[in-house]
Design brief:
The chain is of the alpha+beta class. It is 17% helix and 15% strand. The longest helix has 9 residues.
Length: 53
Amino acid sequence: MVVAFWGVKPSVLVVAPSLEEAALKLLNSGNGSDGETDPWKGTAQLIVAPWLA
């Protein structure tokens, strides 16, 4: 469940190219470090923004 803040439901994650791998791991991991199912998996689209480098 995604909690809306001020009526906004985030659907994108914008990162610099150097953080692309970490962002992919965050968005695509099926389980947390404690073995729990990740409720955030698949809830955002990744945008790699070269101008953030």
